[in-house]
Amino acid sequence: MSIRTLSELFLHAVSLGKPDCLMHKVEGTYRPISSAELGDQVFRLAKSFEELGVGRGDHVALMSDNGPHWAATDFAILSLGAVLIPIYPTLTPDQASYIANDCGARIVIAETEKHLQGFLEHSATLPKVEKFVLIKGTSDDPRVVSFSDLMQKGAGYDRAKIEASARATNPDDLATFIYTSGTTGQPKGVMLTHGNIVSNLLAAAELFPEVGANSTALSFLPLSHSFERTVDYFYYYKGVTIAYAESVNTVPQNLQEVKPHLFVSVPRVYEKFLARVNEGVAAASPIRQKMFHWAVGVGKRAIEYRLKGTRPGGMLGLQLALADKLVFSKVKTRLGGRFELALSGGAPLGRDIAEFFWGAGMPIYEGYGLSETSPVISVNSPGHAKLGTVGRAVRDVVVRIAEDGEILSKGPNIMKGYWGLEEATKEAIDADGWFHTGDIGEVDGEGFLRITDRKKELIVNANGKNIAPAPIENSLKASTYIAQAVVIGDRRKFLSALLVPDYDNLKGWAGKQGLPTERGALFARSETRALLAQEVDAVNKKLAKFEQIVAWEILPDEFTIETGELTPTMKVKRRVINQKYGDVIDRLYTEADAKRGE
Predict the structure, then answer these.
(1) DSSP assigned state of 80
(2) Helix, strand, or coil (residue 589)
(3) Strand pairing partners for 189?
(4) pTM: predicted TM-score of the whole model, two decimal places
(5) Cis amide leading into 375 (omega within 30)
(6) What is the pLDDT of residues 225-252, one digit of tens each?
(7) Hey, CA dihedral for 574, 579, 584, 585, is it positive or negative?
(8) Backbone angles phi, psi at 255, to 5 degrees
(9) Per-residue pLDDT tens for 451-497?
C-alpha cells in the first residue's frame, strides 16, 4: 500500500491483520492487542472526539506516558484531520499548561489525576480548552470526560465515514506540533506535516530491510518526542510488534519478558547497561574477568568485519567464535536473547560504548536529527556504518556544512516552521530553504557526517579561544567512575568541570578498597577524589593546554529531568546548571586562582 499520510499509515497497519500489533503489561503479564482491536479503539475514539467537536485542523493536546492508549488517541485525532500536540508527562503544571495554551488546544487529554489536576488549576490560563479527558482515574469536574466513556460512546461508529476522513488528509496538512524542550527560554512548537514524517519513515524503511513482521520492538523512550514517535510509525509500516515498557526504570526486566529484536534509545541507557555488565565482571572470579577482557579485545579487533556484516577468517575468526559462545552470548541474554540491532540518537554515543557493543556483535546504529527534521537527517545502517559518525544522509535529504562549520539540511522532512513564531522560523530556515541545525560538524569523503559540537554551546574563554565542551565531556564520561560531566569556562581563564560519579561502579571499587559504600560518605572520601583525579588527568593528557580541566568538583546527585538539569531528551540544560551550582562554580575558580597565585 502506498503511504502518503499518517492516517493512511493507520489504515495500512489495520490491514495487516497482526494478532500482536501491540503488547502491554496487564496484571503482571504482557498481553497482545491485535490490529483489529487497535482499529476498533481508534474508530471508537474518532467517533467520540468528533462528537466533542474535534474537526479538521483542530488542535488536541495529550499528556501521557507510552501505552496502547497513546497510539489509539494519536491515530484517532489524525484520522479526523486534526493536529495532535504531545506534552511530556514529566513537565510541571506550569510548563504543561503553557504548551496547552500556546498551541490553542480545544481538548486536553491527561493520563493521570495528577496531570489533570495541574491543568484544572491553570484552567484560567486555558481559555480555548473546551473539555478535558482523563485516561486513568476519576473526576467529578463537569469539564472532564473519562477515556473509558469515550470508548463506550464510540461504539456503533461508521467505519467507512472515518476511513474516508482519514484518506481525505493531504501530505501538506499539519499532523503535529512537537514542542522543543530547549536548553534555554520557552519551548517552541515545531509544526510537522504528514508528509514531513512519512517521508522520514519511508526513507528509514529502505535502510533496514531485515526489520519486518517477524520482529518485536520494545518502546520506552517518550512518544512525546519525535524520535520514538517516528520510529513507532516505522514499526507500524513494517508490521513490527510494538511492546511498551512499563517505564524506563523497568526496561531491564521488560527486556527479559519481551525479548525484543530491536529498540531505540539515548546513549545514557547504553552507558548504564555497560556499567551493569562491568559491575558483574568486577564481582566475578579472576578467571572470568580475564576471559571477559580477552573477549572484549577480540571483539574490538573484529569491529571492522562486524561493521560490514561479515566475519573474519583465520585465527581471529576462531577466537571471535569462541568469544561469542563463551562471553558475548551471555551479555546478549541481558537484552532478552533475541537482540539484533538498536538505534541511538539524541546525544553523542561514546566511542567506548559503541566499540563494546559492536565488538560484542550487538550493533548500535547511531543517527542524527532534530524535532525540526521529523527527526532523522542521517543514520548509520546495516552495511553502511562507521563508528564516530552519525551515518549518511537519508534519501532525499541533503546536508551541507556552512563556512562557520554549522550543519545545514534541506529535504521533505524539514518542518513547516515554529507555531506563531515567524521570526524564529526565518532564523532557522533561510531564504534558500536550508535548515540551520545549530550543530557543528563535518562530512568525510564517503559522505558520513560527524558531529563535533553545538554551535551555541561553544565556550569562548577569557583569551578568546573557542572550545567545544561536548568532546571533553564525552571523554570524562568514558571513565568507568564518571556518570555525568559538565564543562564550565565561558569567559573564564580556564576550564572547570562538575562531575557526578557512577555510584554503582564506584561502590564496587570501594568494596575492594575496604572503604564505606554509602553514597554520601563514599563521595566525600579523599581516596575517591584521588581516583577521580587520575581519571581527569588521563583525559587532560589528550587535550591541548587551553582545553584541560584545571578544577573540578563532585556533585552528590545525578542530573535528572525531574530536578530540572536535563531536558526530556536527556540534554543538559547548561543555563540551569550554571544557576543551580553557581556558588560551587565560583568557589572552584576562587580556590584554583589562589593555588595558581592569581
Answers:
(1) T
(2) helix
(3) 179
(4) 0.84
(5) yes
(6) 899 999 999 999 999 999 999 998 899 9
(7) positive
(8) -60, -40
(9) 987 777 778 787 777 788 888 998 999 999 999 999 999 878 899 99
Domain CATH number, residue 561: 3.30.300.30
Taking only the tens place, the pLDDT of each residue in 405-436 is 999 999 999 999 999 999 999 999 999 999 99
12 and 142 in a common domain: yes
The stretches of 469-542 forming alpha helices (DSSP H) are: 469-477, 503-513, 519-524, 526-540
Q: What is the pLDDT of residue 269?
A: 87
Regarding whether 467 and 396 lie in a shared domain, the answer is no
- Asked whether residue 509 falls in the same domain as residue 587, the answer is yes
Please give the residue range of the domain that contains residue 53: 6-169
Domain check: are 287 and 427 in the same one? yes
Q: Are residues 269 and 341 in the same domain?
A: yes
Query: How many domains does one find in the chain?
Result: 3
Q: Please report the DSSP string for 162-196 in residue order.
A: HHHHHHH--TTSEEEEEE---SSSS--EEEEEHHH
Residue 331 C-alpha cell reads as: 551479555
Q: Is 221 domain-assigned?
A: no
pLDDT at 185: 59
Residue 300, pLDDT score: 97
Q: What is the pLDDT of residue 279?
A: 87
What percent of the chain lies above the pLDDT cut of 70? 98
> Does residue 394 share a domain with residue 462?
no
Of the residues 419, 439, 455, which one is the last residue of a structural domain?
455
Domain with residue 162: its CATH number is 3.40.50.12780
Within 13 Å and on the Cβ side, how many CA atoms surround 317?
Answer: 5
Q: How far apart are CA 195 and CA 192, in angstroms?
A: 8
Q: How is residue 23 written as a grid cell? A: 503488547
Residues 319 and 393 in one domain: yes
CA 158/CA 261 separation, integer angstroms? 37
**Helix or strand (DSSP H, E) at 427:** helix 422-428
